[in-house]
Structures are given as C-alpha cells and as structure tokens.
Fold this protein.
Amino acid sequence: MDLSLEISGISKSYGRYPALNNVSLQAHDKEFLALLGPSGSGKTTLLRVLAGLEKPDAGEVRFGGEDFLSVPVRQRQVGMVFQHYALFRHMTVAQNIAFGLTVRPRSERPSKSEIADRVADLLSLVQLDDMGKRYPAQLSGGQRQRVALARALAIEPKMLLLDEPFGALDAQVRRELRRWLRELHDRAGVTTVFVTHDQEEALDLADRVAIMRDGQLIQLGAPNEVYENPADPFVYDFLGAACRMPGKVEGGRLTVADWVTKAPKGAPEGPVEVFFRPDEVAFAPADGAGLGAEVKAVAQRGPDVRIECVIEGEVFELEAHGPTLPAGVAPGLSLRVKPMRPRVYPRTTVA
Amino acid sequence: MSSSPGSSSIRMPGIAPLLVFASIAAMVLLVVGPLAIVFTEAFSKGLSRFFLEIREPDAVAAIRLTLLVAAISVPLNAVFGIAAAWTVAKFEFRGKSLLLTIIDLPFSISPVVSGLVWVLLFGAQGWFGEWLIDHDVKIIFATTGLVLATVLVTLPFVARELIPLMQDQGSDEESAAITLGADGFTTFWKITIPNIKWALLYGVLLCNARAMGEFGAVSVVSGHIRGMTTTLPLHVEVLYNDYDFVGAFAAASLLASLGLVTLVVKTALEWRHAGELSATRRH
C-alpha cells in the first residue's frame, strides 16, 4: 500500500506548554485513521496542523509526496469538520454546502446550475434532501453535523479531517452516525483522520487507531491489535474498563495475591502490575483456582450481571453474562475469580 | 431566548404595585417631564418661530458641524471597534486585558479630560502648539479638534458591543471558510461581517447618539466660535446663555428627537436580534 500521509517529528508548544512532542505517524491512501486520547493529549492540535490552522514548531508533513506544510490552508483541499459544526449561521443549508464552490476564483468556479446539482447530490448523500432551504438553527445536532460533512465533501477534498464530530451529540445519534460515516468514507474513498476521546467510537470505526497522551503518540495499530495488546497501563486503562492488582513474576510463574498461574508470554520478571478486564473472568467455587473473593452485591442489568466483589480488601466491579455465572452467586458467598487473560506490566516506582 | 432573572415575580402582596407606581412616577417626573418641557418650549411661540430658529445661519452651521463630526468619527470608531474586537476575540496575546482596559478608559474618565488632553497636546501652549502655529495647522478651536475629542469619547461603543459577541462566536466559522478555500477578504465579508452585523449596527447607533450629543469634551476644544466651531449641544448652551429660550429649546428639541429615534431603532434591534446583542446578555 502506498503511503498517503506522512507526519514526522511534529512538535508544537503554546508558551511553555508542549501540545505536541515529536509525533510521527503515517496513514495509507484511503485509510480511516482515528486519533484517540484524553483531552489535552494533543490530538486536536495535530488535526489542526494537518488542516493548516496551526503551524508546528518543528517537523514535517508530507501528503501524496508533497510538502504539505508549505501549502497555504486554502489550497490544501482538506475537508474539515468541527465539533460544534461551525456552520455559517446566516446561510441556508444549500448555501453552506455550496460555499466552497462559490468562493472559487471565477475561472475555476462551476456554473450556477452545476453548483445546484452538486448541492442536490450532496444533500441526498447525507440524507437531507428537503432541507436545503432551512437555516442551521432549524436543524437538530445530528442534521447539522451531516450538513457540515456535506459542506466538507463539496470541495472534493483530498483528505477529510474530523474533530470530535459527534462529541456534541447524544449517544443514540452518535451510534447511528458512526456507521453511516464509515460507509460514507468507504464510498468517497478519501483518507480520513478522525479525532475522538471515545475509545468505543475509535475502535468501532477506524482502520487504525493512534493513541495519544501528553502530546505524544503512545501506540498505533489496528483496533483489534491495540485492544488485545495495549502498550502500557495507560492504554489498557483507556481502552476499556480495567481491574488492576499488584503481582510478581518469578521463573515464569505469576503470583497475584493467593493465586499462582503461568505468566503470560513475554512478561517481565519482578514486581508487576496485573490488569484484567472485568468481564473477562471465570468464576469458580471457593476450593478452585483463582483469586479469593467475597461477593458483596449482585445486580442484574438486562443480559449482564454486575458482581461487586472484595478481593484482597479492595472492591472490584466484575461483569458476567447470565449463562456463564454459576447459579447461586449471592451476597456473602466466597468464591474464586480467575482472570482469563491477565496482562502484566512492569511495576513503575511511581504508582 | 433566555428569560432574564428579573422576569420571575416574587409574591409580596402590596409591595409590587407600590414599587411599580414609584418607578413610573419617578420616570414621569425625571424623564418624560423634562422632555415634554423641551418640546413645549420649542413650540411655545408657534411652529413658524420654531422653523425660523432652526433655519437661522448659526443653527444651520451647528447642525452641519454636528453631522460632519459624527460622519467622520462614527465610521472611524466602527473600523476601530471591528479591528479591536477582532484582535481581542480571535487571538491570544500578552497584554490582552490591558488592551481591554484601555478600550474602556473613555467610559470611566470625565469627557472634559478627554477634551483637555487634546488641548494639552495641540493647544497654543501644548506640546506641539508651537510647531502647529509655525506650520499654520489648526486643530484646537477647529473641526479637527472636535473630531478628535468626539472619537476619543465614543471610542468604546462599537468595540464593547462586538467583543463579547465575537468571543462567544469563536473563530470556527472563519477557520471552516478558509479550509473551504476562501481568502481572508472573502472570509471577512461573507462570514465575519454577516455574523456581527446587528451588533455592529447597534454599536454604531449608540456611538452616533453619543457623538452628536457630546458636550463636555467638545466644549473644551471648541472655543465656542459661533457659526464655526459650535456643535448642536454647544449651540444650545450659547443660546441659553443669551436668554434666547425658544432658540435654545428648538435646538434642544432636535437633539431630543435624535435621542428618541435612537431609542426606537435600538428597541427594535433589541427586540428582533436579542441573541446577538451584548446589552441583552448583561444583567
């Protein structure tokens, strides 16, 4: 696959605060790349560097082999979608979508009827056929964001940049738009960089996920890859609910509290942090193998059961699906909890 | 539309009607009354006398001068206001709060001082006084001085109106326009200006009302040369001191009418475009 976007050594600071610290990553042509991280991780700054709205202090961006940083914003042909839509509030939906075409110099500008046709096509693409004459204020959040996307697509962008596009929408609309956006990307065939702080969204949507923290790229890989092999405790924690316990690895054996098991492949020797997902556990009777636990509370939530346990004096919230739960689990019961896929990281001195 | 906190009424029988009555009484006594007197006095010797007074050469000169000063200083302050609001709202820089304080300064210092600074700079005994006399440039006791004084006094009106709105709107729309291929000029005219037009109009309106009605600062730099450097408010004073009451009130009624027109347009703007005007967001 040919590389479309190459970011190398990008740094940017605001005063004394470093927003991006030597970030390098690549995206393939037509790839859907998610930049995932907590707020302040630099993901939005990186996106704005790609758009040309921020100028990095150091580093290089190449796009299709071209030095992208020397191209002025308005000539980059990137479609940018903002978290709060940034629709032109005094223009109708149709005028918003047409904007990128109407501001072209006369020689490159399509005729009025061509623009009207293009707007109609885009309106139907984003499923807002009858909304062309409305104003942004008359639309719902989800509809506004679809208009913003149509407006960005109107200029036939070489790259689509989305800055938390669903951040201001409610969960239901988010999920709907998510699938829809992925289909749109596949149809439009354009390299897309998507910023989000929602791991579920990133893992669900992207071809590859770049996880960022404190202005640095921590891990880059396919959603499955990063979920299965988080590079460090931060990534493990960030990608989903996590249970964390101290442990020890000695001669290929992992000891966590009263549970001794074979250490996972490549586990470091010495004191470690053991992580497991609260829904990746097996329950066994008190005389079986696993971590000794006492059930404090059990709550049925639809198909899932939430079990509050005390392990080694600490409270853990575990999850189980109805059928895998041994019958008769009730508050006060002692049992054993066996993490199915524990992950082990060297214990850092700073806890 | 958000309702202001004052719109919810508290239950205190007897108190509310009393307070309403008291405020209306005060308004009639202090505002409506004097205004009515201005018009009654202006027309006390009949309509023809009124028109005679305002067509008198000194009055015409005063009206002309007032319009001229406003026509120069209001656009200047509109441009300054947009530039200042743009700078404050769309950029982060050191000394921003200092700039905001300086913009507000003319509101807090006496207009007389705003006039006096120009005299200190350009008056015959001022810093540049000698140089100006040598080169035969007249600033004080001339139209230039009146404009300078008016500009200084009315400086904050447009900027103060635009800053909160533009800060609120942020620069996402401008960023979007630029990524879509618009140049800076297009972005300014097609995105920024339409977004602030009502607030701009509102600010210009207030600025204009103040520019035409300003007395203190203008009085210091004017020199009160009749038919030459007296604006309408100064003309009123001059006539009043001459015991020409009909003339004074006729001129005053023009100023009062200007105020009433301003009030009507202002109210219409507030009613129609409340969300975009900072005045309706301040409590």
